[in-house]
């Protein structure tokens, strides 16, 4: 009897938590199909018109292109840096190692808004005024810790004798890296890249300080649209973002298992 | 296949002297084992030979050529690691082929050599498996095949059998010995297991605190240990202090059976070791030359043998161990505490230790 009650209450706790986490998302998706020009739950009539509207909006389209290009560019820039930094950190034994590691991972802990303001000041001091370049540098810094973190986790799982074995078999330096190290840490590298893509695409707080009138990202475009209108096109674009993110997460899970990657 | 010579090899990490001046030679086709407790410098010595650790001083020569400055990749040495270090993302075939691929051997030749090696280690039927799909013994054989396929000048093995259970370990030892003999390979082996060293090796180097205490054949280090450390490591439990007097060694209140070659002046002391199983007991205290009288302190029955702890007239203790074979296995114990006995042994059973 007690066992049954425990099980029931445990289940309801879990179900409750999931509802709490997912209900807003489900709401948004449902609202996005509303035919009326108001955000209303549940909708009285259904339509895909707000999807069409969202896809036609100049600011959303530009924002999506910029956000996408920015995420890919920042991801491709941060990943090699992250891999090399992680390998360097993993191998070094000098005393400053942990301090360096903390600095590399700092953007994880520092609030995004602080990173954004710091970047604004630093880039202004360096006279970097072009918004695309500022965004690229800012996003690269913001997602670098994820790349380093996931690669470090993969490296920590490796037997150090593997590289020595490769060396005794005639593979030194680059070839050992290419045939042994790289294939073994590839899951970590890809996981870091996918996290980076999602975070960059999703970012508001860092971008906020780095955009200009002509170059803005999708999340910021959505925010500024929201200031003037509150129609379901916001819900429509949000639903599309949810779909893309979900797709990436499923891909990640299928390829490597999210649990294993996050456990590192 | 190759002759290896280590001259004055040493390694220092900061203030810690891991290895101090090791010099030794391994003839072509010989199997040499570095034996010692953990931290004695045996693995560091091995890694210096492999080229994974640069020596602080000294040289490594292979077939007369100084290879000290060469990297591990350039030395052409096959190594089996303690953790085996099989490449987890490669199949058995790919693991074994790796060294040949790095040497840019033609693919057809690689396939042929990998197949022949896999047949030698009896793994041909598992060629497409991944390491995590293999048992411990099979993984061991992959590691061995991977190291051998490059036709190394020397095969180096760093405690490869540590993780195996006893039965599998013995099977692998026999197999390793057979393969190195068949292929006439010069092998350097590291272990802390005395029995493993004795059964595998042509030569055993017993190491302690970064030094080679004794280098010799298994029979030499087992039967004639030169230092207390080696004797202890080889399972000798009897140590006596003696004193020279006119060519006779006095210990335990009597003269030891001779003839013994006196080292040092009259009156100088010497430590000696005797295996317990060499000490033969007779009932009754009968002080003659070459025998010591003693009193039994304790008798312990071990099943296949019985051990007696004896007190000698000068207060030193001595162990005797008798096999319980044949009829004696069924008889009651020959002595009990308090009995007076006479202990004697063959002159060659006494090992004079260097201090």
Automatic annotation (TrEMBL), chain A:
Residue ranges of domain ABC transmembrane type-1 in the record: 64-252
Alphabetized Pfam families for the sequence: BPD_transp_1 (PF00528)
CDD domains attached to this UniProt entry: TM_PBP2
Classification via Gene3D superfamilies: MetI-like (1.10.3720.10)
Residues spanning the membrane: 12-33, 65-90, 102-124, 136-158, 179-201, 233-252
InterPro entries: MetI-like, MetI-like_sf
Family: Belongs to the binding-protein-dependent transport system permease family.
Localisation per UniProt entry: Cell inner membrane; Cell membrane
UniProtKB keywords: Cell inner membrane, Cell membrane, Membrane, Transmembrane, Transmembrane helix, Transport
Protein name stated in the entry: ABC transporter permease
Domain of life: Bacteria
Topology in the lipid bilayer: Multi-pass membrane protein
UniProtKB/TrEMBL annotation, chain B:
Limits of the ABC transporter domain: 4-234
Stored InterPro entries: AAA+_ATPase, ABC_SmlMolc_Importer, ABC_transporter-like_ATP-bd, ABC_transporter-like_CS, Mo/tungstate-bd_C_term_dom, P-loop_NTPase, Transp-assoc_OB_typ2
SUPFAM superfamilies reported in the protein's UniProt record: MOP-like, P-loop containing nucleoside triphosphate hydrolases
Family annotation (SMART domains): AAA
Keyword line: ATP-binding, Nucleotide-binding, Transport
An MF annotation (GO) of this entry: ATP binding
Name used for this protein in its record: ABC transporter ATP-binding protein
Source species of the chain: Roseomonas alba
